[in-house]
Specification:
By secondary structure, this protein is of the alpha+beta class. The protein has two domains: about 180 residues, Immunoglobulin-like (Sandwich), CATH 2.60.40; about 90 residues, Immunoglobulin-like (Sandwich). Helices cover about 25% and strands about 35% of the residues. The protein contains six helices and 17 strands. The strands form four sheets. It has a five-stranded mixed beta sheet, covered by helices on one side. Strands 11, 12, 13, 15 and 16 form a five-stranded antiparallel beta sheet that branches. The N and C termini lie far apart (about 110 Å).
């Protein structure tokens, strides 16, 4: 009887369903335990984390790409919370949308990466700034490093040879279209803090327009790359085309002149990017200097252009709508 009952149960149509439910339940429990474990490993105290967030916020403003005002307000609101867990969650929510990459450093200091939620959008002949979210389970305090074959130089230093060997091919020039740099100068720190969670700043320059792909890798020193190329990822960027906006300026007598121009888009971003400026433009000043008739490359959009010529002149500000087919000049008659 018992053997027969066992046989009937094993052959019954409900047995596979019961087994499937059991397997699914076990899988769900394991997923929950894994998620709980990951949360515990990346738990971070609010005070030092809030200070690091302020550091990032200040640096973004210094680099000419400030956070949106609503996000600055959300950061202030989060830091004022008495519930630390809720405050940290809100700070993450604010900064995560700017993160192009999420870097995970496991307890053995192995690095793996995955894409973040930020839109991989660049601008031709200009720079864009993104965040890198770092989950540091090992408490590493080394420098975070990034590299890409697409960011290698397109020139080589002369060795004074009469017939130097050809080291950079036309294909290399085509593929080396980007500039890639983790910003670790003041007010950012040069090394990781060792906090379980922090954010770093990534600058990407695009020489070209249109779709361009790049393999980008991260590490915290030699031998820290995870196995199976998990420390690198391929990103397909879209670089918006840039157009030359002509700047026309005349003094009170109508003579062509040189002036200082401060240019911001609707998001408050400065153009050209301060960190990539060359003399006579200075990286620590918002303005750039151009003579009458000179141009600045900008993507399509709405800009506020302020022109000034020293204390004896009244500054003037104009709104400019730059499109691919519309007018591409702005003029100022200074008084």
């Amino acid at each position: 009887m018992k053997a027969g009952a066992t046989m009937r149960f094993a052959n019954s149509p409900t047995h596979p369903r019961i087994r499937g439910i059991a397997v699914f339940s076990i899988w769900s429990v394991l997923q929950a335990l894994t998620a709980a474990s990951g949360t515990a490993q990346t738990r971070v105290p609010l005070q030092p984390f809030a200070q690091q967030v302020r550091q990032v916020e200040t640096t973004l403003g210094y680099l000419g790409e400030p956070l949106a005002q609503r996000d600055q307000d959300a950061i202030n609101e989060a830091i004022a919370k008495t519930d630390e867990a809720a405050a940290i969650a809100q700070l993450e929510q604010v900064l995560d949308k700017y993160a192009l990459v999420i870097v995970d450093i496991n307890p053995e200091s192995r690095v793996k990466v995955q894409p973040g939620p930020a839109k991989p959008e660049l601008v031709e002949a200009g720079s864009r700034i993104f965040l890198v979210k770092v989950i540091n389970k090992a408490g590493v305090t080394a420098r975070l490093e990034t590299e890409s074959a697409n960011a290698l130089p397109v020139y080589v230093q002369s060795d004074s040879s009469a017939e130097p060997p050809k080291k950079v091919s036309p294909t290399d020039v085509r593929d080396r279209w980007m500039g890639l740099e983790l910003y670790d100068k003041n007010p950012m720190s040069e090394r990781l803090s060792g906090l379980p969670l922090e954010y770093r700043i990534l600058e990407i320059y695009s020489r070209d327009r249109g779709q361009r792909s790049a393999n980008i890798s991260f590490s915290v020193g030699q031998g820290t790359q995870d196995i199976g190329f998990r420390n690198e990822m391929a990103v397909l960027f879209n670089a918006l085309p840039a157009y030359a906006l002509q700047l026309l300026v005349r003094d009170e007598s109508g003579a062509p002149s040189m002036a200082a121009f401060t240019i911001r888009d609707a998001l408050g971003r400065l153009y050209p990017n301060p960190s990539k400026r060359l003399a006579p433009d200075l990286f620590f000043q918002p303005q750039v200097y151009r003579a009458n008739g000179e141009t600045i490359l900008l993507p399509e959009g709405t800009y506020m252009v302020t022109c000034s010529m020293g204390p004896e002149y009244q500054p003037q500000t104009k709104q400019v709508q730059l499109t691919a087919t519309g007018s591409k000049e702005v003029s100022f008659a200074m008084e």
